[in-house]
Amino acid sequence: MARRRKEDAEKTRARILASALALFAKKGYERTTFTDIAARLKMTKGAVYWHFASKEALLVELVRLALEKFRRQLDELMPLGELTFPSVAEMMVRTARQVVEDTRGTAFFKLMKCQIKWSEASMAKVREDLLANAQFGPIQAFRDAVRADIAAGRARAEVDADEVAVVAIAIWDGLVQARIDHFLVRDLEQTLRHAYEAIWNRIRAKESGNG
Fold this sequence. Notes:
Blueprint: H1 2-27, H2 34-41, H3 45-51, H4 55-77, H5 85-101, H6 103-114, H7 124-131, H8 138-151, H9 161-180, H10 188-203
Helix pairs in contact: 1-2, 1-6, 2-3, 4-5, 5-6, 5-8, 5-9, 5-10, 8-9, 9-10
């Protein structure tokens, strides 16, 4: 019986998160209320509060789940051995395809890029955690990969891993946003691969033949 209650609670949490994500992406984080989320699920506001103490708690959980999914996908891609810039780049190309092809993926991207006022005081802690990579995410993956490439002699010793990671993610963000907004007329995956290949050719050691 206890196991059944736990499973039911987990299903309810998942439904609340899905409802919150859809509303955050549509109305914006600031304009969405617990009443909106509850009404969409035909639940009481108190029932939603029982599972999540605040909107910020909902947002933090959505971010945590997204980063957890990324970590699983990266582990599947690289079950053995260290990360490399090309391997993380390929993972991000695949992730870009998932984002633009999956409704929830697109909703989450829009939420993070367009629907949250990160300057608001209430978002300070969430923003700090994201920028500091409190949980392993794409920027940290690129940073670790470049550092591993440098240590192994695949990338030049003077390369700034932090700078490369920021640029790599900025390119990803920009191209995915352009694809979602229908401004990118070329193939998204091919364009990303060309961009990452250009970065790799820029940072790799001359004697490195890895592509």
